[in-house]
Every structure is written in C-alpha cells, then in structure tokens.
Model the fold of this input.
Amino acid sequence: MKHIAILGSTGSIGTQALEVIRANPELFRVDVLSTNNRTDLLIQQAIEFQPEMVVVANKAKYPQVRDALKDYRIRVLSGQEGLNEAVSLPVTEIVLSALVGYAGLEPTIGAIKAGKNIALANKETMVTAGELVTRLARKQNVSILPVDSEHSAIFQCLIGEEENKAEKIILTASGGPFRNLPADKLHEVTLEDALQHPNWCMGAKITIDSASLMNKGLEIIEARWLFGLSPDQIEVVIHPQSIIHSMVQFRDGSIKAQMGLPDMRLPILFALGYPSRIPSDFPRLDFSKALALQFEPPDIQKFPCLQIAFDCMKAGGNMPCIMNAANEVAVEAFIERKIPFTKIPAIISRTLEKSEYIAAPDLDDYQRSDRLAREIARVFI
Done:
C-alpha cells in the first residue's frame, strides 16, 4: 500500500485523485490533505479518508477546521509552516503537488528535501525554478512523475527508450474555447466565455490559461526540465479533439503517441500507480466509431502568450519565473473582471520589460523575482 499526501485536495486534480484512491482502497492510503480556502470540502474529505494531518493554508480558516475535526485523531495544521511539516511526514511515500500557481514551489521543494517522490500537477514549480528543482531531485534520488496529461504522455512514450534519445517532443493543445474566434473579437470575450473549455473540466485559473494558450506556454517550460530538452526540441501543435495527449519523435523519424479520452483520472492513476498500470473502469476510447483527428499550427499572433513563453524559455534565468508571476496577477485581474482578456499578454510583456534579468538565480532570487514581478504587474492593471 502506498502512502500519499495530497497538496490541494479540494481542487480539480485533488478531488479526482481522491476518486482514484476511493476506487483502490487496498492500494493507497491518504496521509495528508490540504486546502487554501475550501474548508467545508476539506472537512468532508478528512472525515472520509481519515488522514494523519490536514493543512489549511489560509490561517484565518484554521479554527473552523480544528473545531470540526476535534473528535477525530487528525492533526490540523495551518499556513506555509503547516505545509512544510506535512510533506515531511515519515510514512508518506508520494506527495501529489496539486496546488495552484507559485504557491506549489516551496512545499514541493520541502517534499523533495524530505526524500519524497513527487507526483507533479503543479506545473508552475518547474516553470519558476525548474533547474533548481530537477537538480535537487537528482541529489535526493527522488522521482518526479508528471501528472499533466501532456507530460504524462511524453513520460509514457519514453518508457523503454533509455537507449534512444528523443529528437523532439510534440505537445498537443486543444486550442481552447477561442480557437475559431476571429482575432478581432477576442477583446469582447467574457469570463464566462473563457471558462467554457471544449474538452477538459479544470479549475478556473488553468482554464483561463488554456484559453490564452499560456497553459501550453507553461507546459513547454515544464517539459524542458522534466525531460532534459533544449528549447528547439519542443514543439506545440493544435489538436482539437484532445485524444492524442502528446508525442515523441526519435532520431530514425519514428513517432510514438499516447492516446486516450480527455480524463485527468488516467494520468493521476498512472502517476500514483507507477511503475504498475492499475486496472480501472474508466471509459475507453472506441475506435470502431468514426474518429477524426485534426492537427494545425498554433496562431501565435492571435495568442501571443505562447510566443512569450517560448522567448522566456530561451532566455532562461529568472525570466520564466517573472512571466509566471505576471500571468498569475493578470489572470486574477481578469477573473475579477478588472481587465479584458486581451490585456493578459500585454501585462506579462510589460512586466518582463521592467524586470531585472538574473542569469543564474538561486531560491532567494526566484522568491524575490516573483514578489517584484507581481508588484510591477499590478501597476499595469
């Protein structure tokens, strides 16, 4: 039985991970659950799964959870210190990092230092500090197992290919809800429009990122560090059906692709069960039915966030960290209806222009870059 800590258990990835665990009680034991604000759901999860600890990142909500769980043998912790302690629980083997945004970096680093294998759903950890995180993981002999469907697909395609280096990888993107919308209409889109993803059911932030193609931008940077690639070995293609989750091209010209229905429970199950494939009753892809697979290049003029991400990946240093911070600020402002959708890439670009470049940042540099970038980005809202 594997012991698992879930950081962000009340979010989209966290709740689906608990579905997987609920269906396999003989294989998995939940040691830690955490949330930022969704305390009612956290309390329900804690009562059902009886973890060793729960963590409420928002300290103001700590008393509610403490009082609700006072009759259970569950430790209730709060804040960043609570997360740092929870990821070091001796019995835990895998930490599923499903926190949203930059908030996932510090506890993920703490888990790696504690020698825990990481099931990584928080792509921002690798975007902001991928070089540092991968170096630390190698030092600690820790595995980072990708949970994002695209990176899980690449990981699966590379199994058994240890002697065959990838020539390039091809990350697929659905194109989001605005793929067929004329560029001159983007300034009119609403929050509700942007949240209507055609294929995936996800949280608000990642859904907005998918609409702007910044999510794919974050993923190319994550892929660079997860798989040890150079920027020119990473491509993006629009695949509206989200059936092929990504591909690897080898030096002989062969291409391997991982396929499946767009269901995040599949890569979650793979990451938690690795190296075994655990049987499931999830819906299957039926090839006996008419199945059209389309591909097209991304429109970087219409969706400049993707080009911004490629540029930041090539620049390296703290540029991806700054980009991520500015994007988080801009997306939050869009969700709060303070800016139009088309202002998101403008805020990111202007923040990058005003920020200091650091070629070889350490953790303190990343933290400072993130803080200053947020301050700069807020000026442009």
